[in-house]
Amino acid sequence: MTREDLIVVAHRSLPILRRLLRPLFTIVSAISLLLCVTTFVLWVRSYSDENIMTVGDFTFFCFKGQFQYHDFNKLLRAFASSTTMPEMRSGALPCAIAFAFTALLPTCWLLLRPHSRRAERLRLGLCPTCGYDLRATPDRCPECGTVV
User: Fold this and answer.
1) Of 67, 60, 64, which Cα lies nearest the Cα of 97?
2) What is the pLDDT of residues 78-106, one digit of tens each?
3) pLDDT at site 33
4) Which of 10, 78, 103, 104 has the fewest Cβ atoms nearer than 10 Å?
């Protein structure tokens, strides 16, 4: 296969790839939006009271605008068995950084989605507003009256 043949094959498979990736991007953006809203709610609540959640060995809590985690269970087991002090894993992440990171994909989706739909409709010879076929009247849409 020559290089030109590979380019033709890649060009033909590109719409199929776009059709597969677009719903995936939408789903991932929706999950990210849900995490963004949750982050914002926890961020606001962190200034009023302490939110504690335990998952496995880790204890997560949100306090004064920071998500923090500590391995308290390992510490309690060490005290119960009277062994040496274990190495504690802990850390913190500012809520603003978590909020900005989780808001990135939904923002991209909101900014790119209307533009991509309009551009694709124009490329296919359809009205950018209603999607009506414009092959017979390329200047104005007979369905909705939009000037193209």
Assistant:
1) 67
2) 555 655 555 666 677 888 898 999 999 99
3) 93
4) 10
Closest alpha carbon to 89 in 116, 70, 113: 70
Buried b (16+ CB within 10 A) or exposed e, 21-38: eeeebeeebeebbebbee
Joined tokens for residue 28: 């991932």
Question: Is the pTM higher than 0.70?
Answer: no
Residue with tokens 């009023």: 48
- Specify the amino acid at residue 135: R
Closest CA to 71 of 47, 94, 95, 87: 87
Radius of gyration of the chain (CA): 26
Instruction: Enumerate helices (H) and strands (E) in the chain, giving the number of each.
Output: 3, 4
Structure-token pair, residue 82: 């009277």
